[in-house]
Amino acid sequence: MSLPHAILTALLEKPSSGLELTRRFDRSIGYFWSATHQQIYRELGKLEKAGLIRALDGEGPTRGQKKEYEVLPSGREELERWVGVREDPRAPRDPLLLRLRATGVVGVGGDMVDELRRHRALHRERLAEYREFERRDAARGHGTERDRVHRLVLQGGIELELFWITWLDRALADLEGAG
C-alpha cells in the first residue's frame, strides 16, 4: 500500500501535523496520490504504533495542541526499501473509460458527449495549473536533487494531462462526427 509511503515521504520533506499533511495532500501530493483527512490520521496512528514515526515533543499541555510528527530511522529504512521494490505498471481505472465503453451497449447520447467535454475542460484546467507550477518552479531556479525529482513528477503530470486532452479531442471529434 502506498499511502503510508506517501506520508513517510511528506514527513521526511518536512515534519508536520496531521492537519498540515492534509493541506499538503490537497496542494501537491494529492495531484497524484489522494487521501482523506481521516485516512491520513488513521495512517499516522499506524505508522507511530509500528515505530516508523514519532510525535515531536511539544511545549506545554498536549490537549488541543496539534501533534507534529517526524520520521524515525526505521521509517526512513522502510521508505528506502519501498522505493527499491519492483512493480509492474497498473492499468488505468478511470470510470469515464468504463462509462464510455458502456455507451457502446446502451448508445451514445448527448449526456456522454457533454461529459466528455466537461472532462476535457477539467483536464485543461489541471494542465494550466501544472504549467503555472512549472513556471513558478523555473523562476526559483533551484537545482537540487529534490527539485529535479519534483520537476520529473510535475512533467509526468503535464504529459498525462496532454494525453487526456488529445484523447478527449479525438473521442469528441469521432462521436460528434458520427451523429
From TrEMBL:
Residues 93-176 form the Transcription regulator PadR C-terminal domain. Pfam families: PadR (PF03551), Vir_act_alpha_C (PF10400). Residues 7-80 form the Transcription regulator PadR N-terminal domain. This is PadR family transcriptional regulator. SUPFAM superfamilies: Winged helix' DNA-binding domain. Gene3D superfamilies: 6.10.140.190, Winged helix-like DNA-binding domain superfamily/Winged helix DNA-binding domain (1.10.10.10).
